[in-house]
Design a protein that fits this description.
The chain is α+β, with helices and mostly antiparallel strands. The protein has a 7-stranded mixed β-sheet with strand order 1-2-3-4-5-14-6. Helix 3 (about 30-35) runs antiparallel to helix 9 (about 195-205) and helix 7 (about 150-160) packs across helix 10 (about 250-260). A hairpin with a 5-residue loop joins strand 3 (about 55-60) and strand 4 (about 65-70). It has 2 domains: about 5-130 and about 300-325, Gcn5-related N-acetyltransferase (GNAT) (Aminopeptidase, 3-Layer(aba) Sandwich), CATH 3.40.630.30; about 130-295, Aminopeptidase. It contains 12 helices and 14 strands.
Length: about 325
């Protein structure tokens, strides 16, 4: 198998090629590459002669050295995964690339682990995208979906409805960020810049959605979602802490799923569950699991040297810092 640089025509219709693989992911979209350019990543796009594609983000380091990351890629059928990573490695070897990191949505098994090891591809001690996530089946009848939830979750959704919580869609980034800043202050996490969110909304166009929950005139919940083909993802969001008795965020999450279904999505990804007790996602995992769905566990991040002489630079200094910047 060979990884062939995408032609100008293929670059122009990149998202169509991603969708045609049957396993599209937002992080392999043209919009995602545009977004990551804000944090110093360049993009390389490849088409495999055996079928499938890969969008690779490349980060420059001093002395002309680079590191590469294929988020949720390469997009190939599972039996071709090892071959495709090797093909990407060979294609990137034409530049001074130290390492290639991949985190495909495939499940781990002994045979795959053996094949990866033989090809010089190993598990990475860092990860960018969550190894575990919660997938919701939006094709279910609404009553069946509610019935599959935990009792408390279902009760809180109905309580929010009775309390008059209003949910609505907007393109107002500042309104969204006003709630998200309150969440960040409470939970002590840093936010991306307004430019980052504006770029995301512009790049995704009508595939990006901001949904808000309010009680009276006060916004108290916010979510930013994205769609691609038949799948939707929760990207950012949270509850401000106001009007706890009305449970606004439960209703917002439920209405977000129904909105995505109305727009043609049948799979809804809550973008991550905790990987360990000290994972930042641990605090919200129980809340997410209350909505039902199926827990998906992927193989995790895989890394391989591209230029073996440069690989120690990735291992010793760049690995964790650059993994964080790619998130």
């Amino acid at each position: 198998m060979k990884a062939i640089a995408a032609t100008p025509d293929q670059v122009t219709r990149w998202d169509d090629l991603v969708i045609a693989t049957g396993q599209p992911h937002l992080t392999q979209s043209a919009a995602w590459a545009e977004l990551k350019a804000l944090t110093g990543w360049n993009v390389r796009r490849f088409v495999f002669d055996g079928g499938g594609v890969a969008q690779v983000l490349v980060r420059p380091l001093p002395l002309g050295i680079t590191v590469a990351y294929a988020p949720r890629g390469p997009l190939v059928q599972a039996p071709a995964l090892v071959e495709s990573i090797v093909a990407l490695r060979e294609a990137l070897a034409s530049e001074r690339c130290a390492s290639l990191l991949c985190d495909p949505e495939v499940t781990a098994d002994d045979a795959l682990a053996t094949s990866l090891e033989r090809a010089g591809i190993r598990r990475s001690p860092v990860y960018v995208q969550p190894r575990r996530t919660l997938l919701m089946d939006l094709s279910q009848d609404p009553e069946a979906a509610l019935g599959a939830m935990r009792k408390k979750t279902r009760q809180y959704i109905h309580k929010a409805e009775r309390a008059g919580v209003v949910t609505e869609e907007t393109r107002d980034i500042d309104r969204f960020l006003a709630v998200l800043r309150k969440v960040g202050e409470r939970d002590r996490f840093a936010l991306h810049s307004r430019e980052y969110f504006a770029t995301l909304m512009a790049a995704l166009g009508d595939r990006a959605h901001i949904l808000m929950a309010r009680v009276g005139d006060e916004d108290c919940g916010a979510m930013l979602l994205a769609r691609m083909a038949d799948r939707a993802w929760e990207l950012y969001g949270g509850w401000s802490g106001a009007h706890a008795e009305s449970r606004p965020f439960y209703l917002l999450k439920w209405r977000a799923m129904r909105r995505m279904h109305a727009l043609g999505a049948v799979r809804y990804d809550m973008w991550g569950l905790a990987d360990s007790a000290d994972d930042p996602l641990a605090g919200v995992e129980n809340f997410k699991l209350g909505f039902g769905g199926a827990v998906a566990e992927w193989i995790g991040a895989l890394e391989t040297p591209v230029r073996p002489m440069l690989y120690p630079l990735w291992q010793l200094g760049a690995r964790r810092r650059l993994a964080r910047s790619a998130a």
